[in-house]
Amino acid sequence: MGWSSKVRDIAAGICLAALPGMAHAGDTAMNPELPTAASFYTGNFQSLKSRTSDSQSFDPLSLDPPAYLLAANGADAAPGQAGATPATSPAEFHQPWMSGSKAHQYLGLGTVVLAGLTAMAAPEEGCETNCGVQPPRQTSGTTHTRLARATAAMAIATVMTGLIFHWDDIYWEDPFTDPDKMHARLAAAGALMMLYAVNKSAKSTVPTSHAGIAELGAATMLVAIKLTW
Amino acid sequence: MMQRKLKVAALFAIALLTSSAYARAEEDFMGWLLNLERQKNVKPVTGKQYQDECGECHFAYQPGLLPARSWEALLNAEALRKHFGVNAELDDDTLKIVRDYAVENAADKSWYKRSRKIAVATAEGPAPLRITELLYISRKHHDIPAKMIKDNKGVKSLSFCDKCHTQAAQGVYDADTVDIPNYPDWDGWFNK
After folding, report:
1. Whole-angstrom distance, CA of residue A39 vs CA of residue A28
2. More confidently predicted of A45 and B179
3. What totals of helices (H) and strands (E) does chain B contain, helices first?
4. Who among A69, A83, A116 is closest to B142 (CB)?
5. Are A90 and B179 within 8 A, CB to CB?
6. Buried b vs exposed e over B29-57: b needs ≥16 C-beta within 10 Å?
7. 3-state DSSP call for residue A172?
8. Does residue A80 belong to any structural domain of this protein?
9. Among partner residues A38, A48, A82, which is closest to B160 by beta-carbon distance?
10. Among candidates B77, B141, B137, B143, which has minimal Cα distance to B107?
């Protein structure tokens, strides 16, 4: 097995390692009514529904969430009256080794790492002086092209997991400078730039400038990660 | 080959800059930008007096959960005499230390992500006086039914952050660290 194949396998392994989080979806009770995006993730719609007096005509979209739930949850409790007997003490609690958020995080970091490896594996292209007969340009089968495609695939997976698991962190009415909104915009733009670079290079039989846009895309994604790191 | 050397040199330069940035993390934009430490949540409480005075009665909420003008409104002699229905008066010296610490580490002066979100969302309008009334906080919890919070004997109110957020004292409020008392099967898997 060649070095390039190993790299490809490692990249595939990273992608596969992120998948168990999605596989766990089967353990979550799926509610066919799916009233809100956030309820989709938590499966709490039934409990919401049961709290309403007229469940037959319950329309979650007609209610203001903070009004129908927070009014109750945010009710005051006098200092010192909190329940002092949590079922599980913090010391006993163990974080899940994988979650939607963690899958998104690992994929994002993996994308940047793969982008760096892709840049490092870039072949020298073009000839300015004393050029002899140039070999045909390879648009597949090289370490660089394989890494580039893996990077693009991982960038797409990163954006998709972000949309799925952090959809309800983004609100249109939030200011432009909201960190999550900036993160989403920059990460999506970075992924698109890398996809464009891969596509442009893959379709060209002659040396074509694509490194700049790809590196800019990776840098944009890096800034996006930093914004919510 | 030259291009590759330049890239390697750039990576080394970034690594060097990053490693030297720890010392000045959070002090300015460049310090934040080059700091690799996680700053996704809220800066944990580091002021001993703040921790002692506030933590004596309730969870010592991180100053990064409210903007500075909120702390100024909350932490003055008059306001503390009727601090959410309780007399929480402090002597002048202690009050100054506590207030200064809260204001200096408030959401609008922090680089931590959740603090920045709170700061951006509260930049306009009246100063919020309750953390639980922040739109950001209410959105984050609006899907959790009352039976898990208000009607849960192990929690009782959204105000008791540390009942469910197992790392609240460290300023970590990720859903992965949530453990709702009496609801161990609450699925945080698909949450933030």
Report:
1. 12
2. B179
3. 9, 0
4. A69
5. yes
6. eeebebbeeebbbbbbbebeebbebbeee
7. coil
8. no
9. A82
10. B137
Contacts of B145 in chain A (CB under 8 A): 44, 47-48, 51, 69
Give the distance from residue B146's alpha carbon to the nearest chain A alpha carbon, in angstroms.
Answer: 5
Question: A194, A151 in Cβ contact below 8 A?
Answer: yes
Report residue B49: phi and psi, to 5°: -65, -40
Q: Which segments of chain B does DSSP mark as H helices, in order? A: 2-20, 29-34, 48-55, 68-74, 77-81, 92-104, 113-121, 135-141, 161-164
> Residue B86: helix, strand or coil by DSSP?
strand
Torsion angles phi and psi, residue B178, rounded to 5: -85, 135
Q: Per-residue pLDDT averaged across A32-39, rounded?
A: 41
Model confidence pLDDT, tens digit, residues B98-113:
999 999 999 999 999 9
Domain coordinates in residue numbering, chain B: 2-34, 48-177
Note whether A174 contacts B120, CB cutoff 8 Å: yes
Of the candidates B185, B186, B188, which has an alpha carbon nearest to the alpha carbon of residue B174?
B188
In a domain? residue A157: yes
Predicted confidence at residue A40, as pLDDT, reads: 38
Verify whether the Cβ–Cβ distance B179 to A80 is below 8 Å: no
Nearest to B175, CA basis, from B141, B145, B135: B141
Cβ atoms within 10 Å, residue A226: 16
A138, two tokens: 């390879």
The mean-pLDDT minimum among A83-92, A162-171, B117-126, B166-175 falls in A83-92
Residue A60 domain flag: no
The alpha-carbon gap from B186 to the nearest alpha carbon of chain A, in Å, equals: 8
Q: What is the pLDDT of residue A179?
A: 92
Helix axes A143-165 and A3-18, enclosed angle (nearest 10): 10
Phi, then psi, of B124 in degrees rounded to 5:
-115, 160
What confidence tens digit (pLDDT) does each residue in B43-91 have? 999 999 999 999 999 999 999 999 999 999 999 999 999 999 899 999 9
Of A198, A75, A109, A182, residue with least CA distance to A147: A198
- Which residues of chain A does B183 touch, with a Cβ-Cβ cutoff of 8 Å? 87
Q: Which residue of B has its CA nearest to A89?
A: B166
Does position A205 have pLDDT exceeding 60, yes or no? yes
pLDDT over 70 (residue A45): no
Average pLDDT (A211-228) is 93
**B172 closest CA partner among B45, B34, B26, B35:** B45
